[in-house]
């Protein structure tokens, strides 16, 4: 008898499962149930349609139901919601949303891929006609149509995760005045705060009104339409359209009701073969718990790459295969106008939480040879284990070339490399594409130097704290007088690196020293000079480029002159 495989959900994981099952078993009967009106659509592309970068709506429909039927002999049932799984009987209850009828369907194998659902907080008027989420094609159509019809001028996006930032960019490109509200003190939570502020600065510089550390208290308006957003801080913002993007949670209702085991993260527990606690039910995608490649521990990620790979494995195994799904790294990337931010593996915060003895380095390096036009700095933060030098994660911010570097780091993490191995990577170079020493190599060199005690780094976060606690620290700016005049950290003494050997007497050997420059290189040279002369010295990792001036007042030129006279170089 033919094996009957039923699939619940028809997007990234479900569509992958269905087609892989077909490629593995030509004889199986495969039916895919999707409660929405579309299967296999590119939800990652939705913000770019709103932005009008993607203009043809059909381009978002990757595989149509007809293509599933003709090419793969997969029966797609749209507008069919699975309401119950009966594991003992090996049946599901399905409701035909158009006909309003329900029926029972038998399975030999069931693949569960219901994805995640948007978190909607219980705020008054959160269901008003101009408050939207962005998960599906109908969500996208609704936002696009509203913009075309109502010509809103002011938009508020709530939540500064990936989708929030992408929607800010989309609405900004459509000419709306955008406000972004985020409860945390930073945008893009997968990044460390000392990297995320660079993105926040750029978002503000582009004219977006960014409110960090603030939440929505209420929406106000008339006729079921929001006109103002009141924040917890008391600020009131005009809004003609609101996008809610505060996060998603795994859709586990069917699994829970069926008695399937959930994992520690609250998502559906599966083994490496994507099998649930029921031997006839597989699950994949945003609804399931994954294993983190670095920690080896359970985690939850909601990303398209893992969903698609896991779906493939679940589909193969549902028809008798023996595939295993890879662990995840959470590699992800996002753009806001001219800035691109990407992350893979653990950030410093999560590495510490996971119990690692963590060290990190921050470097800035051109994405291609500096002498070739349009060279731009990339900022790379490398997170690694102090004892072993094992790479734990990386974050890259810049514009061109961010994607290439984060993928090298993801590959290095997959190969379980140490930071020393990064120095050995033989990467492609010609002037328009890279440098003889690629930024990834440089990240390796700097981390290796830190490990070998050639330099003792201090992160900008730790230096902020240290300056607040420890008045005996001597802060030395080793850049040029002109750079110092433009902007410097409060309390710093200027001693350019080229004058340092002659001016050692100006630094007290009995007190700790922190040096800094623009990006970290001159600070490294200065710290080598000082260390070899018996000073206890640390170098600000990533230099002044990564210093948050909005939280630690810098000294203006005028202020510096009044303090030190015109000869600022002697300050
Ligand atoms: P989904 O894609 O959510 O599909 C689940 C499907 O199951 C849904 O269509 C749902 O209607 C259906 N379903 C649920 N319950 C039932 C039921 N009871 N009966 C029938 N059908 C049901 N990831 C990236 O890696 N990079 C990106 O750039 C990126 N951008 C994104 C942008 C947006 C706007 C969104 C929304 C997501 C983005 N993602 C991105 C995340 C990525 O799209 C998801 O990780 C991926 O789609 C998850 O696939 P999935 O199949 O598990 O779930």
Shape: globular
Portion of residues within helices: 25-40%
Q: Gap between N and C termini, in Å?
A: 87 Å
The Rg value, from CA coordinates, equals 27 Å
Strand order of the largest sheet: 3-2-1-7-18
Q: Which spans have pLDDT < 50 for at least 5 consecutive residues?
A: 551-571
User: What is the number of helices?
Assistant: 16
Largest sheet: 5 strands, parallel
Mean pLDDT reading: 94
Q: What amount of the residues lies in strands?
A: 15-25%
Distinct small molecules bound, one entry per kind: flavin-adenine dinucleotide
Alpha-beta classification? alpha/beta
Count the strands?
A: 30
Oligomer: single chain
Q: What key attributes describe this structure?
A:
single chain, 571 residues, alpha/beta, 5-stranded parallel β-sheet, 16 helices, 25% strand, disordered C terminus, binds flavin-adenine dinucleotide
Describe the structure.
The C terminus is likely disordered. It contains 16 helices and 30 strands. The protein is α/β, with parallel strands linked by helices and 571 residues long. It has a 5-stranded parallel beta sheet. It has a 5-stranded parallel beta sheet with strand order 9-16-10-11-12, with helices on one face. Strands 21-22-25-24-23 form a 5-stranded antiparallel beta sheet, with helices on both faces. Helices cover 27% and strands 25% of the residues. Bound molecules: flavin-adenine dinucleotide (FAD). Flavin-adenine dinucleotide (FAD) binds next to helix 1, helix 2, strand 4 and helix 8.
What order do the helices and strands come in, and which of them pair?
Layout (H helix, E strand, L loop, with lengths): L3 E5 L3 H13 L4 E5 L12 H5 L14 H8 L1 E4 L2 E7 L4 E6 L4 E6 L2 E4 L3 E3 L12 E2 L4 H14 L3 E5 L3 H12 L3 E6 L10 H13 L3 E4 L3 E7 L2 E7 L4 E3 L2 E4 L3 E3 L2 H5 L23 E3 L6 E2 L6 E2 L4 H15 L13 E5 L2 E7 L2 H6 L4 E9 L10 E9 L5 E8 L3 H13 L4 H4 L16 H13 L5 E2 L1 H10 L4 E4 L3 H6 L6 E2 L18 E4 L4 H12 L4 E4 L16 H8 L7
Parallel strand pairs: 1-2, 1-7, 2-3, 7-18, 9-16, 10-11, 10-16, 11-12, 26-30, 27-28, 27-29, 29-30
Antiparallel strand pairs: 4-5, 5-6, 8-17, 13-14, 14-15, 19-20, 21-22, 22-25, 23-24, 24-25
Helix pairs in contact: 1-8
Bound molecules: flavin-adenine dinucleotide (FAD).
The site of flavin-adenine dinucleotide (FAD) has 34 residues, from α1, α2, β4 and α8.
